[in-house]
Each structure stands twice: as C-alpha cells, then as structure tokens.
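thread: overnight batch results

M.L. [08:02]
morning all. the overnight job finished for the chain we discussed friday. pasting input first so we're all looking at the same thing
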Amino acid sequence: ERAIGTVGVKPSIDAIAEVKVQTNLYSADVGRTQGGVINILTKSGSNQFHGTAYEFGRSDKFDSADFFAKQRPVLKQNQFGGSLGGPLVKGRAFFFGSYEGYRLDAGKNFVEAVPSAAAWARAVPSILALRSGFTAPGATVINGASTNPDLDIVQLQDAQRVTENAFSARFDYRISSNWSAYARVFHDQGD
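M.L. [08:03]
and the structure it wrote out:
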C-alpha cells in the first residue's frame, strides 16, 4: 500500500513461502519508496499434496496475577489453522489454501493517573469541559494510591472479546515452461 505505507494483505504464517526485505537500492518496480520495502511471497501448490495444522493456546491458569488487579483477569487465547496444497491437473494447474482462526477472551486492567477533584476545581471552563474524557465509565478511584493531591489513580477492569477468521487461496496455471499465471484471494473478518 504505497498510499499509507503499510501492509495491504496479511497472509497466514502457513501461507508464506518467502520474505524479502529491501533497505536501499530499490528496483524500478518499487518506485519512490522511502524507508524499507517488505515483499511477501505466498506459497503455491505442487504435484504432491501437502498440508499443515497448528494450534496455539494460552490460559490465565498459567499467568501470574497482575499486582494492581483486584482479581486475576480471565485469559483464554487460541490461534489455530492449517493449509493444504496440491495439483488440480498434474504438472499444469495447482492450488493452495490456508485458514487461520483467532479467539481471545481476556480481561483488561488499566491503571492510570488522572486529575483529582482539587485539580479540576482550579481548571478554567474550557479545560473543565474535557473532564468526562479523562475517566472511563466504570473506572474507580483507588483511594490513597497517589501522594500528589492533584492526581487520582483510577482503575478500569473490563472484558475484551476478539473473534477473527482469515482465509486465503491461490491458483496457479503453468502455460508453458516460460509462462505461468496465478490468482490469489484473501478474506479476513474479525470483531
């Protein structure tokens, strides 16, 4: 994405064949890029069927408690997926597909310093209008946590849930020993 300088497509780790990082002496196809250029080549199928499967799990049962948390926050994280590639027509047409799922059920624990009631009492009206933006709904003041009379220490504990599914597919067609074509599709949806 030359317009914003970020990755346009984020393929599953199982779908990556090669990563190339260029820091200078760019070829003409890169254009007038500043900084670094990262090219990611995706895998394609072959004359044999190949596949992978993986699972990564994390749980609050293996984490220590946060010093500032009133209780240990919930944490259930799973990242899983797989890939499959092979021939459609031997020696001529190939496919490769991957899936990656991500599930997160986690507790958030934020501890922040915010202006105290004494500090807000001295604020000019234009600054006083910003008061509601300093403390999130549901945040509580931790009494006695601050030694500065102009600051309160507040804590917010809440839940965070993330569900994401990413799919990719690639189809290759070998026209001759010198010519080939491919089509690639990515779909990533999360909430």
